[in-house]
Design goal:
30% helix, 124 residues, two-stranded antiparallel sheet, alpha+beta, 4 helices
Length: 124
Amino acid sequence: MNESKSYLKKLFTVNKIIYCKLDHVSQSGMTRHISFYVARKNRIIDISLHISNVTKHKRSKNGGLIVGGCGMDVGFAVVYNLGYCLYPKGFRSSERNRCNGMKPTDKGYNWDKDGGYRLKHSWL
């Protein structure tokens, strides 16, 4: 688990976008199999195994993660959970603070206490 955490943190210093690919949906629509990737140095890297190690999601036979639930963006849910596991105390974020209408003179401007929002996702 610690190896996966350090690997992912090193990986996300350059690229903070995680790409989600829907591999399978159960007949009931309550379970999905999703693979996760990042692009780095002109390569696509499958990080599903590392996300599974950090967040404790089970893996499917095809290598993606098994995610239950419906009525939500399950890709966002996994990426948010990963961000929270990697950055439990929060992170520096002037960009997010500006989006929330904070000014540089506001107290707590450079620190976001919710590590779940550190990473972004996009669907393939």
